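G., the chain you wanted modeled:
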Amino acid sequence: MYQRTVLPNGIRIITEYLPYLRSVTLGAWYEVGSRHETEPEWGISHFIEHMMFKGTTKYTAKQIAEVMDQRGGYLNAFTGKEQTCYYFKVLDEHYGTAAELLEQMLQHSLFLPGDVHKEKNVVLEELSMYEDSPEELVHDLFSAKIWPHDPLGRNIIGSTSSVATFSPEMIRDYLAKHYTADRLVIASAGNISHEQVVDTFGAAFASLPRGSRPLLSRALPEAGQGHFQDKDIEQVHLCLGGPALCRHDRRRYALALLDTMIGGGVSSLLFQELREERGLVYNTYSFTALYDEVGAYGIYAGFNPQHWDQVWTLLRELFEGLPQLITAEMLERAKGQMKGSLVLSLESTSNRMTRLIKGEVDEGRITTPEETMERIEAVTYDELMELAQTIYDPEKWSWVGLGPRHLVKEEVSCQKTC
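Predicted structure as tokens:
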């Protein structure tokens, strides 16, 4: 059973009561992420996420970990471009303890200078870890190429110089500006009633004030930009793509079906052509990044540097031939794949909680799995092909290659998109 309540200060609470389970997953989602940061604040959303676990007026950092471990629960968080989430999964009998712990973290964290100093080192290690992971790094470089003049183009973690400037005062100022009641959504799925969640968080967050939502910059994507970054590794890692839809666009179901057919599994066009038929890659897939007002689609492939020209040519031929390659039968298979994946995901309360949030932030209401499947099924072949012809244009590709430049035998330049 789904229920939704908006508290007097604007906090939205959404629940799915599943009395046949023994667990509950609850998330507190703030509609703030790295896209909302000014340049001096670059990385502070992610840094604050770390600092929330470093001690409150009631619990030390060690006690926060011990309380959850002792009960076999899971407490974690993540930061995105437009949202930050703190969540837990526990047995239903431990819901009260976990909820009180989360409330302490979100409202009574200390942000002590010594803890801020130590955590800077941790975050810088995390930044180094991502820079040492070429598949992760090439995605960040691709975002920077798509949105070179907007926070969407920056990585989420920040830079060495920006992280070094963070202070307890900066953290508290950022929280006061962005962690406001009207930007908080609390969602739960599992064996906990809607009334219990409302009572718990309605009382705990009653004093959280509303805020004014800052205007987002108009993220104008740049098409046709190319860049190869030299790195002493074994493979070339390639990301390419272009502008797509925003996360509110109802055509996103058609885009998801296209993404599934192009690179969403072992039967996809990319996997079959590049790996199964040609043996050119081990890993390849497609992806979408949909945000408020803007979005992008992309392709990833990792391969031997000597195969650069062959991989590029095959990718271009694939997209130019989409009208002939995509059939009505493929569309039906993709619909079955998406609907099957959705149903299987519902076996996880974490996935159910995330679905509640996405319905709220994308559409302002609860969207049921049945409604989602109806929207998937309603996509027609003509709608699919119209969207494909609109967004999949190799002439407007932006791309980033990462790897040993001296081993790439062909000419690598932005003219490769022309």
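Confidence is low (pLDDT under 50) at residues 414-418.

Shout if anything looks off.
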